[in-house]
Amino acid sequence: MKKRVISVAFLAVLFSFQAKAQNDTLSENYKKQKLKIEEINFVSSYYKQDGNNSAVTGGVGTEKLTDVATTLEVILSKKDKKNNVHSFDLSLGVDSYTSAS
Q1: How far is Cα 95 from Cα 72, in angstroms, rounded to an integer?
Q2: How far is the C-alpha of 71 from the C-alpha of 88, rounded, in Å?
Q3: What are 59's strand-pairing partners?
Q4: Whole-number pLDDT of residue 32
């Protein structure tokens, strides 16, 4: 039992010497960069259908339908230390579809 305790204590001491905190020099070299807006896209669509437009026209009711869709897309970018461009794409969309038969 003593050998196990000594072994665990030895490993704990060994790993504590290996573990180091972050250097302050890393935070001095870091530069904050703002994201740059590359594109802003606003896309909207509207579709309306009335009457008998399907292949099968039997039955009771109408074939009216309406589809409204809106999407907003924002593309942001930034460069890293090696001048590589990283893009971030944010997209939000709403779609409303009504149909009756």
Answers
A1: 12
A2: 16
A3: none
A4: 73
Distance CA 65, CA 50 (A): 7
Structure-model confidence comparison of residues 45 and 50, the more confident one: 45
* Encoded tokens for 57: 């026209």
Cα separations in angstroms, 21 against 17, 91, 92 = 11, 39, 41
Q: Are 41 and 72 a contacting pair, CB within 8 Å?
A: yes
Chain segment 72-86, per-residue pLDDT in tens: 999 999 988 888 889
- Percent of the chain at pLDDT > 70 equals 62
Distance of CA 38 to the CA centre of its chain: 16
DSSP codes joined into one string, 33-62 = -PPEEEEEEEEEEEEEE-SS-SS---SSS-
